[in-house]
Amino acid sequence: MNGRLAEMKPALPQLISFHQFSGLDHEDSHTHLYTFYELCGLVGVSGVDEEALFMRLFPFSLNGKAKAWLHSSKNTETRIAITTFAQGVDDPLCEAWERYKSLLRRCPNHGFEVELQVQTFYNGLQPQTKMILDTSFGGSVMFRTAEEAITIIESMASTNFRSQHGRSSSHKRGVLELSTQDAVLAQNKLLSQQIEALNQQMAKLPQQLQAMQANAPPT
User: Fold this and answer.
1) CA 151 – CA 75 distance, rounded (Å)
2) Could you tell me the CA-to-CA distances from 128 to 32, 45, 68, 123, 144 in Å, in that order?
3) Average pLDDT of the segment spanning 89-94
4) What is the pLDDT confidence band of residue 169, given thresholds at 50, 70 and 90?
5) pTM, to two decimals
6) What one-character-per-residue DSSP string does the chain give?
7) Percent residues over pLDDT 70 in the chain
8) Residue 21 forms beta bridges with which residues?
9) Mean pLDDT, the chain, as a whole number?
10) Between 7 and 139, whose confidence is greater?
């Protein structure tokens, strides 16, 4: 086990407990998960150690009926594993996606809405994997519906699976196991899409200004 994980300071669980989620109507579970991942990032671990860290610390982030929900089932460990899912550094997309879906199947009463399932999976992905997904979407996955996101993820995972199993072990390279050059190309493509969208918005600006002037009350 990573030394930083084994020597985790008591201050970190205490810090996380200051940002607890109780499951009340005015609370946002998405914001809570983002804050939780951000705080866990202070430890600076990755891969298997990162997932172990999430599972150890997540109960400290809950309170009230949210904590009661966590402990209300024999599937407590699976629920934590779902909520704190993380793609391994060397895991291709197809394996990460199947592992995540397997966790959901093992705990059919997990209580997570589809939107939260997608966001939890996306948040747990490696940065390069997120970049490729965002490029395929033409923007952030989080701006799409859950159904659209799942369709794209399934398609890319299927392509990744065929790539993984269609080559010899000495030449395997998943679609999402990117070299530095691949990552730069993907980032440039996403940037080009964003610039194109901005140019389209700017082209509409004169018409919008004319419409505003035409509708302005006389002075």
Assistant:
1) 28
2) 24, 17, 36, 12, 19
3) 88
4) very low
5) 0.52
6) --HHHHT--THHHHHHHTT-B---TT--HHHHHHHHHHHHTTT---THHHHHHHHHHGGGGB-HHHHHHHTSSTTHHHHHHHHT----TT--HHHHHHHHHHHHHH-TT----HHHHHHHHHHTS-HHHHHHHHHHHTS-GGGS-HHHHHHHHHHHHHHHHHHHHSS-GGG---TT---HHHHHHHHHHHHHHHHHHHHHHHHHHHHHHHHHHHHSPP-
7) 68
8) 62
9) 76
10) 139
Q: What is the C-alpha separation between 35 and 28, in angstroms, rounded?
A: 11
- The answer to whether residues 152 and 136 touch, using CB atoms and an 8 Å cutoff, is yes
Q: How far from 191 is each of 18, 128, 139, 188, CA to CA, in Å?
A: 37, 15, 9, 5
User: Using CA atoms, how far apart are residues 195 and 211, in angstroms rounded to an integer?
Assistant: 25
Name the phi and psi angles at 46, rounded to 5: -145, 170
Residue 175 pLDDT > 50? no
Residue range 125-138: mean pLDDT, rounded: 85
State how far the Cα of 154 lies from the Cα of 164, in Å rounded to an integer: 15
| Per-residue buried b or exposed e for 103-138, using 16+ beta carbons within 10 Å of the residue's own CB | bbeebeebebeeebbbbbbbbbbbebbbbbbbbbbe
Q: How far is CA 164 from CA 133, 143, 174, in A?
A: 18, 29, 5
Q: Please write the tens of the pLDDT for every residue from 98-129.
A: 999 999 988 887 888 899 999 999 989 998 89
Q: Which residues are registered as beta bridge partners of 62? A: 21
